[in-house]
Model the fold of this input.
Amino acid sequence: TFLVPRAEHQGKLISVEMTPVRGKPGEKAHGVVGVPVTYQVQVPVGAAPDMSAHQERWDHAAATRPGGAGSKPGGIRVLSYNILADNYASTPFARESLYHYCPDEFLSVDFRKQLAVQEIIAYRPDVACLQEVTEDVFLTWLQPVLDAQGFEGRYTQKTGNSAIGCATFVRRSRWHVKATHAVDLASEWKECPDLAEMVNGPSDVAGRLKRGLERSTTVAQAVLLEYLPGEGEDGEKRALWLLNTHLFGHPDATHVRLVQACTLMHQVERLAKQKPAPD
Done:
């Protein structure tokens, strides 16, 4: 159950009363009621931002969605969205230098995560590829909210001590997730002979490149999808490998990102040749 606050709720506190009930319908203990518990959110309802500038795009997305009237059978809409992890938005450097133009209350993850979900839903994607997702935001917000909207979510965390990763959400009514595979880009390049020969070369440039690759915590999320034909479509099964990643972000590391991109191309070609594991 979700509450969408209205204008008259602004400035007020939300209270939730929960009454535990034992058992499921049909079970002997069904209907045994516990003591109600009330929880009050201590932050008042704030004013929603003006999203009218986005409405035209949202209307177009709704009118042209895959599976809708006049759409091409078997089409797929993929949305990619870097939602900016709170780890990168809440530091003094981020607030004073990177996002100095943005008021602190708008940088808050509790404010931004609501707008991110609103946009994801409004664009009507079949697949939403999200980057800079922390595990707590995935588990406590994105997963339950988007699950209620008909999406199945998968999360893959970066290597090392990073608490950030990628999340992919797939619309269950159109695509079935058959497998998920994590690609460690700090080491996977070693499996590609051409890349390994270049990175392990004797030059100083190759040495710097190798150090940059090995220090990176970047992962990619490879998801194998199977198309679910709609009413009136043929029953042919079609599979699709989809990769979701956030390449190494340092502005002076274009050479690292290039090798990572080549590694992903090599990896997806290898995966495409493999026989998918059964459900």
Summary: Residues 254-273 form the longest helix (20 residues). The two ends are 31 Å apart (CA to CA).
